[in-house]
Write a structure and sequence with these properties.
Chain lengths: 387, 381
Amino acid sequence: MQQVLLVRMGEIFLKGDNRPQFISALVKRVRYAVKPLGGRVESVQGRIFVHDLGENAGLAERRVSRIFGVHSLSHALEVEKEMPLIEEAARELSKDLTGSFRVSARRADKRFPLDSMQLNALLGGVVLESNPALTVDVKQPEHTLTVEIREKAYLHMKKIPAVGGMPVGTDGKALLLLSGGIDSPVAGYQIAKRGVELSAIHYHSFPFTSEQAKQKVLDLAAILAEYTGPILLHVVPFTRIQQEIYDKCPESQTTILMRRFMMRIADRVAKENGCEALVTGESIGQVASQTLQSLLCTNAVCSLPVFRPLIGADKTEIMDQAQRIGSYATSILPFEDCCTIFTPRHPVTRPRLEMMEESEAKLDVETLVEEAIRGIETLRIRAALRN
Amino acid sequence: MIYLDNSATTKPFPSVAEKIAACLSEDYFNPSALYAGGMRAKALVQEARGAILAALPGANRLVFTSGGTEADNLAIFGVAQALRGRRGSFIASAIEHPAVLSAMERLKAAGHEVFFAPVDESGVVKPNALADLVNENTALVSIMQVNNETGAIQPIAALSRAIKAKNPRALLHVDGVQGFLRCPIDLGRDGVDLYSLSAHKIHGPKGVGALALAGRPNLLPALYGGGQEEGLRSGTENVPGIAGLGEAVRAYSRLPSPGEALLKMKLRLAEGILSSVEGAAVNGPRPDEGAPHILNIGFPLRGEVLLHALEGEGILVSTGSACSNIKKTASQVLKAMALPSWRIEGAIRFSLSPQNTMNEIEETIAAAQRLSTQYRRFVRR
């Protein structure tokens, strides 16, 4: 009798000819997640099994349930397909339970001599006999003992829901503009959930923003990496650009001009790194730089499509999702990601494109962008084991 | 690297690191064990105890703790517990370390009477204002020896006289984490009943400190267990840490007139910055009146910006106490001194140690002058 983590795949079953490729992407991700825990991964007929987890089964559950493409998990007992062993496993799993139960058997291996109905009846009897605190209820049981007959027999009491979505790496690559705030990690999560591999870009204004602010972004990327696998993070030195805008352009436009630089740099870095889209955490009207006119102005400098998965979401909805993902507590740590010195007191909310272009004519945009890109520091961020 | 954040922590002396390594690799035994190794471990603890008592006039008992915070907590909760359910009155200055302030808040929540004594513009507690808060129920007053953010030295002897004149039974606890070895104190002469100290502020290891007792103040333990430290602090002794603390005290005491050297560097730093950075002002007492190792200056630009700019040049300083940086609130200490807000937002704390040199001070003055000129024009419009 062996403890095993049984991993069920999500909608990748629907995907016809691509299926083997999707499964191998998912197996790779599961392997990456359980490797530091000592787990051994095996993929057989549409199921992934993780063996040898021992004490780390709980940690593995959290890590694996966060892999896009995983539909649900169960901590199962694995035994050979022999009735005495199956019965023993059924007794073991049900020994501490009270209340009502039923057995739900599935015979995927049709060569097995007993069919599902027969298994249900037989194992139900075995459990009832060994644990008098249980009664049978096939309609609304408190507990369900699931038995799957495959290459081996798997028995478990609980199906743990996982994130779903599609395995990362099955549909291209995008570059996420990652600030230290609440929104951008959530936006990255949503795009990655559809199988898109993420890289990230962050703008750092030393000494106006601190090393802690940068570390916070690294931490957020590490949280995202729990779902997406390792993330390449490009940290762009942004001080020079902010100072130039501060010195030469109208105060009310500074935020929009700054964001145009960010988008310009992101667009170029994305193309250089094989990314096919940009991702931002913008949502309409949240701040002055996210009105329709502002978005038009910042969008105008991009050649790649810009995905804004939160565009119609309320702040509270985004906050709830950040809580679920586990990024919220880190996002609200009080290190500024954009020093307020450069934040206008009265920003324009209806900027016109010509106005922005006129202001930028006072700047050597091309040189500033090139200089910033040359100064990029690229870090490979891995998922961290944390509390 | 020029390290001027010695009030946050210090670099251990080489002899401290050696002592700790020996404790970990050779004399790792439990001091309570009956065989020779255990006795050697016990001797190491006693040796450290002796070194500290020798350096702290008037102390006659020492309880080793996990550091300054635990020592402060033991003093405050130890005295409160000893009231055995009676409601007591407690006083702390408004500029105490959070280890004291939070403990006091906790006592307040538990139903005790708690007062906070105000400070003047240079961050010094006034004996009269403190005496006004003392009543017949006053169980404990907690005042720090040296303020960690401004270097203000508190007039402990005068404060003790003022307290005891109104209530001779009231105990005085002094948080000496920033003062021990760097500013003189005599627990007997100055009327101090309990005194906290920490190893890592004097080039010892982190995770160890002590509460020194003068006389026999009535105190109950915060931790119960095997009865170590005369029952006041159970738990197997942190022998490497304690031996490291003892060695730090010995090594510090061997330095030739460290106080003079510190003061000389501090005065030059203050003079150099004040004469070259227009608008800079000292937050706290006059430099020659404060502790010799702490200088707080309000610069005419955001403290964090200057801090990071200095960091970019390898000069490490702080904007206040390391603990309160994380909370991102303006310094409670500077607020209590009622300074104008620009001096609080522009505050930089330089804290020196005998390991610094005059050359480092000159480099720091030059960098502070250059960088504050470079960045001060970027202010929110």
